[in-house]
Amino acid sequence: MKPVVHVENVSYAYDGGNQEQVEALLDVSLKIWPGEFVAVIGHNGSGKSTLAKHMNALLVPTRGNVYVFEMNTQDESWVWEIRQTVGMVFQNPDNQIVATTVEEDVAFGPENLGVEPGEIRRRVDEALALVDMTGYEKSAPHMLSGGQKQRVAIAGVIAMRPRCIVLDEPTAMLDPVGRTEVLRTVRRLASDEGISIVHITHFMNEAVYADRVIVMEEGRIALSGTPREVFSQPATLRKLDLDVPQVTELAGQLQAAGVALSRCPLTVEEMADDIGTLLGRGPCRSELHSH
Amino acid sequence: MTSGLFWAGGRAEVSSTVIEVRNLCHTYMRGTPLARQALKHVTLSIAEGELVAIIGRTGSGKSTLVQHFNGLLRPDSGHVFVDGKDIWQKGVALRDIRRKVGLVFQYPEHQLFEESVASDIAFAPRNMGLSDNAVDDAVREAMRIVDLDYDEFAERSPFELSGGQKRRVAIAGVIAMRPKVLILDEPTAGMDPRGREDVLREIQALHDEHGYTVVLVSHSMEDVARFANRLVVMEDGRIAMDGRPRDVFQRRDELVEMGLGVPQITDLMAELARRGHNFPTDVITVDEASEALLPSLLAASGMAGESDSPCGGGGR
């Protein structure tokens, strides 16, 4: 299997004024595999967004290389194919809408690619179905909620038939329902459609659903692993001023006090299972409860 | 949030009402086909010294409501009282009301525009017609209150500050008017965890140490559980719930139905109850949960007889 995106020893520096060079990325290496859901966390200024922008040639490395399949992002002749392969969704839903109806907005990308009208119709319908927005074809984007707007933006990217979607804090400006909707959508794109997802977020409760979590700090990858590997290092995370989900924090406190929990739970269900096991009731799933 | 701080109930003394709205209605784009009623007969009063959090989905009327508190929006019907005075009555100067009730907008750093931090904060007091000396005093005091060192920051450009610092400059700009009430519309929206913590601690200090009455609009249930002493839940232009965070979060199912939620830790306690475990459910912080669970889990662990710490050896 070939990685969709291969970031190889990438450093990126820019002129910060006063002839000062700002090192935004320092020797970062990373592979994004097909269908993988990768969450990237870290503070503003840690290099997350700079890294994301390297994945579809919005930025090119000062040193090192980024490959999208075989295409080196340094090679300008590939730029359109690269951007078709790796789509981007940004933080502010209002800055990404270009048309006056939802379907025109989603059709914008494929139209620019010169896709023929029948095929565009198919792609628009399919993309809206994938983000759960069927029925909103004729709606005016500015009348939608934040979560709906972000899903339309994602549909616009899907209509380009990308292999990977990079989302730069797509939930930062949304309310809890909007966040849940967007998260559910991107999880499904990875697991059911095999589209790789790179999800940049400040919300740890979103990162726990990723296959892999990358923690950035000062232009480097500070920590990387499965969510359980990463979130079971609260001391390291605290040093980086990052937090862990509340249930994980609770488990840490209980373990420190001598409670025998066999793993580090990341979700309400896992924590309830573990408490049940300890109290001799065994794991079970409540039928009333769904996420 | 990893902090163990939590405020049990704030100040308990009986105090006077500073803001009261009665039967407030507001419709956007009234008289057009796009008319939308954002507030429907809202009645609410806020007492001096309270730290009130307003939660609700986008479009539920939260921002519309708080923009009535200082006369930024005019109601279609109903009344707004500040310190007992009907602010839309003839003879009331809105200037005075806005000085008394300071409003910090969403993404306030977008409104920073001056060349230096000090001149940005000085903008409002200067407009109030204060003397140069008085303006300077107000700026220094505001910076001290939001914990920005005057010598270090006064002459810096606001644009080269971190997100948390920029927001504190914006808050200082409002504080420089020496308001009595501080209203913050989603003060931590879009910030990273470090910036969020920074701003939240600042707000807490404004209330606890500097005596401000604070109203904040928030989307984070974890944050409001930690330090609001009253929670107002808006839904579809109405107040759906109003009470102590502990009591409001007991109504988990209704909140979820509204597209809101409860702190994750409250959710855990509710899930344990659903599974038939006998623990309290009115738990809203990690420390409270730890206290509630520890005795029986320790007893059970004694029988299991292991002592591993897969979560990295403790939460703090």
Layout of SSEs?
The complex is a heterodimer of chains A (291) and B (316).
Chain A: E1 5-15, E2 21-32, E3 37-41, H1 48-54, E4 63-68, E5 71-72, H2 79-85, E6 86-89, H3 102-112, H4 117-130, H5 146-158, E7 164-168, H6 176-193, E8 196-200, H7 204-207, E9 212-217, E10 220-225, H8 227-231, H9 234-239, H10 246-256, H11 268-278
Parallel strand pairs in A: 3-8, 3-9, 6-7, 7-8
Antiparallel strand pairs in A: 1-2, 1-4, 4-5, 9-10
Helix pairs in contact in A: 3-4, 3-5, 4-5, 5-6
Chain B: E1 17-28, E2 36-47, E3 51-55, H1 62-69, E4 77-82, E5 85-86, H2 94-100, E6 101-104, H3 117-127, H4 132-145, H5 150-153, H6 163-175, E7 181-185, H7 193-208, E8 213-217, H8 221-227, E9 230-235, E10 238-243, H9 245-248, H10 252-257, H11 264-274, H12 286-304
Parallel strand pairs in B: 3-8, 3-9, 6-7, 7-8
Antiparallel strand pairs in B: 1-2, 1-4, 4-5, 9-10
Helix pairs in contact in B: 3-4, 3-6, 4-6, 6-7
Describe the structure.
The complex is a heterodimer of chains A (291) and B (316). With 291 residues, chain A is of the alpha/beta class. Chain A has 2 domains: 225 residues, P-loop containing nucleotide triphosphate hydrolases (Rossmann fold); 47 residues, no CATH class. Chain A is 37% helix and 21% strand. The longest helix of chain A has 18 residues. The two termini of chain A are 32 Å apart. The C terminus of chain A is likely disordered. Chain B has 316 residues and is of the alpha/beta class. Chain B folds into 2 domains: 249 residues, P-loop containing nucleotide triphosphate hydrolases (Rossmann fold); 33 residues, no CATH class. Chain B contains 12 helices and 10 strands. The chains are: A alpha/beta (291), B alpha/beta (316). Chains A and B meet through helix 6, helix 9, helix 10 and helix 11 of A and helix 7, helix 11 and helix 12 of B.
